[in-house]
Amino acid sequence: MSGTGTVHVIGAGLAGLAAAVRLVEAGQRVALYDQAPQAGGRCRSFHDATLGRLIDNGNHMVLSGNRALLDYARRTGGADALEELRPAVFPFLDLRDGAAWTLRPGGLWLFDPARRVPGSRPLDYLAALRCLTASRKHSVADRLPP
C-alpha cells in the first residue's frame, strides 16, 4: 500500500518511532517530529551531573517482556543488543542519606522485606492494582492519590 502524501508523526518516543517504522514498512512516506534534540522520549541515556554518571532510562519498558518493544527492537535491528538479566536485580542508592538496597522482584518478593524498598509494606505495592479498574477518564493520581 502506498500513499500519495506524507504521514506526519508527532513525537519521537518509542510509540512514535514504532509507528513510523510500521508506516515505512507499509510504503508510506513519513516525517517524524519531536521537541527534544534526540529521539527516544523517556527511553534514552543522559548524563546526570549530580551522580557524574551516564544514566540509561527506559529499561523498565523491557522488564515485563514488553512484546511491542521487543518487536520494535527486532524490526530495527536492535534485538541482538538487548541483554536479559536473570535473576532481575535492581540496585538503588538514596543520595540523601546514603541508604542502599537492591530490589529483587519475582515470586513472593513483596512479602520479603529484604527484597523490596526499605520501610515499604506489601500493601504499598498492591495499591497499584487500583489502576486495573481505572476507566479512560481516570488519571493515575485519581487511582493512587499521593
Radius of gyration: 19 Å
Order of helices and strands: EHEEEHEEHH
What shape does the CA trace take?
Answer: globular
Tell me the number of strands.
Answer: 6
Share of helix among residues?
10-25%
Distance between the termini: 48 Å
The largest pleated sheet is described as: 2 strands, parallel
- Name the average pLDDT: 85
Structural class: alpha+beta
**Beta strand %:** 15-25%
Low-confidence stretches: none
Instruction: Record the strand order, biggest sheet.
Output: 1-2
Structural description of this entry:
The protein has 146 residues and is of the alpha+beta class. The protein has a domain at 87-146. The protein contains four helices and six strands, in the order E-H-E-E-E-H-E-E-H-H. A two-stranded parallel sheet has the order 1-2. The chain has a two-stranded antiparallel ribbon with strand order 3-4. A two-stranded antiparallel ribbon has the order 5-6. The longest helix is centred in the first third of the chain and has 12 residues, at 14-25. The N and C termini lie far apart (48 Å).
